[in-house]
Structure formats: structure tokens, C-alpha cells
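Changelog-linked ticket: adenosine-5'-triphosphate example.
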Amino acid sequence: MACARQVGKTTTTSLKALHVAVYEPGSLVLIISPSQRQSDEMLLRVKALYRALGQAKPSRDSGSELVLENGSRIVSLPGTEGTSRGFAGAKLIVLDEAARVPDDIFASVLPMVASDGAIWALSTPWGRRGWFFEGFESREATWEKHRVTVYESAQYDDVRIAEVRAALGGFVFASDYECVFGDTDTQLFGSELVRAAFTSAVKELVLP
Ligand SMILES: Nc1ncnc2c1ncn2[C@@H]1O[C@H](COP(=O)(O)OP(=O)(O)OP(=O)(O)O)[C@@H](O)[C@H]1O
Ligand SMILES: [Mg+2]
């Protein structure tokens, strides 16, 4: 999901995480984002939603883990190499702020999903690079894609949109609010130009 800022990505996906944990007893749900703090923040939302449901008390509740009485676990992890290894068979993996989760972390997370599990990746775009950009722009049907721009969110009216646009530069507004995977305004060469500089006509240099 490529969505604008503050449209409810984290809240909505917290509900999805809780839904899986409640309705699939014994399931594992992983929440991964660039930092432990961000992942814990999402887990806090899950806990608040769980409390709001008036369910039985969780059997374990720490800063980075919620264990339900049905045996389901929701674990929040940082998107850093090493820490996130060792989990398997997750029914749901949520990648929040996905465009900022590095490629190698995504590669290490992929095998942790169960064969009948799902990966939900949500983010504002962040330039024309990385697995989130490639997955979103790819023509292959690997991912189901959704885009929610600022114009489609009830959180924003015309006045607020105009204020945000005036306060931010063109790149940030296009990226964070119109969900465009664009070149940054600080790069010297546009990505189209860089792509055009590559050719398969030149033979690969093979060192002896
Ligand atoms: N469906 C909704 N209806 C009303 N308010 C909502 C809804 N979903 C989220 N909110 C509120 O909107 C605010 C932003 O929600 P949330 O943090 O989930 O958005 P986000 O897209 O993850 O934001 P960010 O881009 O900062 O990560 C919060 O105050 C949240 O309580
Ligand atoms: Mg969020």
C-alpha cells in the first residue's frame, strides 16, 4: 500500500494484525519497521484495539510482544540485520514505513512467512529505489497494490491540502501526499538518465 501521510496506514493495519491473531489461534504476527521504536508504536495500537474489544487479558504483554490466550503472538521487531532472524511460519508480516526498510532486511524477512501467510507492506513512497518501489511498480502480479493519495482521504480537506503543499517542497508533497515514486530534488542525474546509460551491447568484462 502506497499511501499518503496520516491517512491511517498504521491504525488500519494494526486492526488487521489483531484480526489475524484473534481469529487464527496459535498464529504468529510480525510487525517490522525501520526501527524498534516505530514497530513498538504499532504494537501499542494493537494493544489499544485489543483492550477496546473487551477481550480477556493477554497472557503476556511486554513492550515488544503481545501473547493472547489463544496462543497467538504479535511481535514487534526492528528492521535491522540479525535481530529479526529466527522466526518462522508467520501468518502475517506487516512492514510499516516499508520504503525505508532496507533490501537486505526484506530479503531476510521473506522466508519467515507461512505458505498460507501474507505480507502487508505499507508506506509513503521514498524515491525510485528499493524493493518497495520495485514491487509496487512491477507489472508482475506478485503483490496486490493499493494507492491512497491525500485527495482520497477524509482526513484532509482542500484548505489543509493547500497548507501542506505550501509548507513542503514539490518532491516531498508529490512523494508523501500524492504517492508518487519520483526522483529526489537533490540527485544530480535523474533515474531515467541513469537507466538510459546502461546497455547490454557492451560485453561484460571478465577478469582472469
Ligand atoms: N479510519 C479512521 N478514522 C478516523 N481517524 C483515523 C482513522 N484511521 C486513523 N485515524 C487517525 O488518524 C491519525 C493518523 O493515523 P495513523 O497513524 O494510523 O496514520 P499513518 O498513515 O500511519 O500516519 P503516518 O504517515 O504518520 O505513519 C491518528 O490520529 C489516527 O487515530
Ligand atoms: Mg504510520
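Closing comment: Example verified and attached. The radius of gyration is 20 Å. Residues 9-10, 96 surround magnesium ion (ligand 2) (CB under 6 Å).
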